[in-house]
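ugh ok fine here u go
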Amino acid sequence: MAAALLTGIIASVAGIGAAVYLGLTVTSTVGLSQHISIGIFSTMITLLAHSMMMFYFLGKGKAVREAAAEGGLSNEFERRIALVRKPVFSIATLAMMSTMVTALAGASVDTGVLPSGVHGVLAYSCLALNLGALRLEILALAESGRVVAEVNHLLG
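structure:
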């Protein structure tokens, strides 16, 4: 499951990067159409992938809590999962909000309401936040895997 979630997030970040690149190099209506299509698709994948990652960590915390309780282990393992997921929830939420604002700003540029420079700055921020979220999610998945391995080892 973790590999599928990471694949989704990596694909979404790659899509955002491609949309940024196309936005910078667009010279025709075909290029603009590709920029818009990739941007919309990447926005949807980004929102799905980050929210699924959050649900994954909620489920992982519950599973560790229940396994530790059944095995008579301390609640230290649940606390460790909670510590790992807290920064992920924060930055993933920011990344999703940034992605939505960037997409909406893109629509505003298309209709002539907003200058393209504002959309460009938002796009760079969106890409940076999503890369930061990806980094934290990888670290959190690794740590949660270690916690689960410890619980499994102690439970035999």
